Amino acid sequence: MYSKTPVALSLAALFSASVAAQSQTIEHITVTANKFEQPLEQVLASVNVITRDDIERTGVRDLPALLSNYAGIDIVRSGGQGQTSSLFIRGAASRHSLVVVDGVRVGSASLGYKALETLPLNSIERVEIIRGARAAWYGSDALAGVINIITRNGDSKTLSVSSGSDNYVNVQGAYALTQGAFKGAINLGYEQTDGYNVTTGQDPDRDGYENQNIGARLSYDFDTLGKLEFVGQYSDAEVEYDGTSSDFSKFENYHLQLGWQKAHGRYAHTLKTALVKDDNFNTLKNPYPGYKANQYITERDELGYQLNIALNDALTISSGLDYYYEDVGDSINAYALEGQPQSGFVNETQSNKGVYVGAYYLHDAFSTNAVVRNDDHSEFGGESTYNLALGVPFADIATLRASYGTGFKAPTFNDASSIWGANPDLQPEESTNAELGLRLNIAGGQYDVAVYKNTFDNLIDWGFNGPENINKASFEGVELSAEVEDWFGINHTLNFSYVDAQDDNTGEDLVLRAKRTFNWGLGKEFDKWYVGAQLQYRSDRVSYYRTHLPSYTLLNVNARYQLVDNISFDFAIENLTDKEYVTNVAATDWSTGAITSEYIGAERKVYAGVSLSL
Q1: CA angle centred on 561, ends 558 and 566, rounded to 5°
Q2: Is 65 exposed, middle or buried (0-12, 13-18, 19+ CB in 10 A)?
Q3: Sign of the CA dihedral 17, 540, 543, 583?
Q4: Confidence band (pLDDT; 50, 70, 90) for 18?
Q5: DSSP state of 10
Q6: Which of 206, 263, 315, 325 pairs as cysteine with 351 (C-beta 3.0–4.6 A)?
């Protein structure tokens, strides 16, 4: 049994040690899991908050590496930096989790999800991970969870430069200014690496990555008229990878948002409008005569309004409506035949209108959340979702929570409108989610335990007749998390997750899902030093054609030395033990199913940098 492994024994030992640790003050954290700010302890869901300080302390290079340290999340890489990374929240596929940036829905409408590797880490101020169905708040796609990313909005004035293995270079800066009612923040970044050869048995070359980005947040508080805010983020990049039909990609992404907020007595108004573009161009580094490239472009317009009414100290009513319009008409499908749409899609636009209302009641004896929502999709009609949650506090140190909710995902353009198999009868994928959890704050640490069961119906798969609602899947699991300080002043962040992800049609395990994941982060400050380490364990998993991918354990270390008040040096070593491991299958023999090429993880990498606080 897994409980006898060193990972589990270490977890149990640390839980025991924390009981004797000194009492520490629990940080007051607010989150926007319900689309407005609430204290973390009032949110009846499994939530993690990652701050800018957390990002800098871990020394990670990109967003997928950052997210992989948290409970319930597994990242499967198909290459290095900038290349495809699949997100599995509680075993569900990337398309079943919603990514929003500054409250804006982002990502490809043809794929149906946001590619996390395209989001530059230097632009991020804060990340909220909300596990469980959130469709009643956010609409389509939020079946397994939501990754809520807030771009730089702090008051930092910093400049940093780092370099390392594979000719890695990273230059980033942030500047903030406050003048009376005006606040402004800007961030810039440039990152480049030659990369490494990410596959075996094919295309033996380095696969590099280059990204440049800029972002800004400007606001002015007009007092009686409310606060007006502009947020914008732009990035473009070039990525090399190993593929059969293409091996070079360019992407250009941006979102622009204008928002207004006004609180007046018991009423709080929020109005936002946004423009989003996700442009991905795929080609060959050395195209031959007559070669045709693919380009997938999503343009999205969004509009949302939310009204919160605090009826009294205990009861808040939250209601809102949102709208988005998606257009993929500028896409180019290299394989479109004469007479077919150049974009590769029969229908090139779609829209969705959503309306929701929720009630949040907080009492000494219990708290409860209830939200209902209805979405009206231009292609698939209406879909209703809801979420109910109950929390019971115990002696000011624990909260027991229970929740049940539903979710849905509208078919993507690839599934519903492809020139190769449009299906007018295709219906949204649906889910039900049940969870029981316990959050505990005691001397020396914070703990969270969650047990869940999620079932997905009407899953879309491509059969002989094109895309059909033919699949079902179920996900059952448990998550254990702890943040503690031991007798020696070392901070420990641990989590263990177990998920049983099954195809209900066949009874087999879903591919690429590790049943057991374990993360252990340690950090210690002394004198002018901060020293940290992160251990990651992933159990074995099955891949395509039921091939077996073995388990692996990685160890990363990092340190920061504060030379003077405004100058610090950073050091990091990734994969300290130089572990050789396989992350995914790259190619197989179609006749036998034998693996002919594998994606391999990066070997040991060393990085160093300097940061200046202005």
Answers
A1: 125
A2: buried
A3: positive
A4: very low
A5: H
A6: 325
The position carrying tokens 């990670």 is: 60
Burial class (CB in 10 A: 0-12, 13-18, 19+), 602: buried
With beta carbons less than 8 A apart as the criterion, state whether 147 and 50 touch: no
DSSP state letter for 300: E
CA distance 110 to 108: 5
Tokens linked to 403: 């929740």
* Secondary structure, 3-state, 143-178: CCEEEEEEECCCCCCEEEEEEEHHHEEEEEEEEEEE
> pTM for the whole thing?
0.93
Distance CA 433, CA 470 (A): 20
Q: Give CA–CA dist 503/510, Å, rounded.
A: 6
What is the distance, to the nearest Å, from the Cα of residue 527 to the centroid of all Cα atoms in its chain?
35
For residue 114, give the H/E element and its range.
Answer: none
Token readout for 371 is 């939200």
Residue located via tokens 């003077």: 564
418 has which bridge partners?
345
State the pairing for strand pair 367-377/381-394. Answer: antiparallel
Nearest-Å Rg of the Cα atoms of the chain is: 24
Tell which residue, 376, 365, 280, has the closest CA to residue 330: 280
Neighbours of 184 (CB within 10 A): 16
Give residue 148's identity as a one-letter amino acid code: N
Residues in the chain: 614
Spatial contact of 192 and 168, defined as CB atoms under 8 Å apart: yes
559: its two tokens: 């340190």
Among residues 54, 111, 110, 114, the alpha carbon closest in space to that of 89 is found at 114
Q: Which residues contact 55 (CB under 8 A, 6 or more apart)?
A: 66, 121, 124
Structure tokens at 222: 């007009």
- Please write the tens of the pLDDT for every residue from 50-105: 999 999 999 999 999 999 999 999 999 999 999 999 999 999 999 999 999 999 99
Task: Confirm if 76 and 85 have CB atoms less than 8 A apart.
Answer: yes
d(CA 450, CA 476): 11
Q: Could you read off the pLDDT of 406-438 as tens digits, one per residue?
A: 999 999 999 999 998 878 789 999 999 999 999
Give ∠ CA 62-127-366 in degrees, rounded to 5. Answer: 150
Residue with tokens 């923040």: 185
**pLDDT, tens digit, for every residue of 104-114?**
999 999 999 99
CA distance 602 to 168: 13
Q: Where are the alpha helices (DSSP H) in 215-329?
A: none
Which residues face 560 on adjacent strands? 530, 570
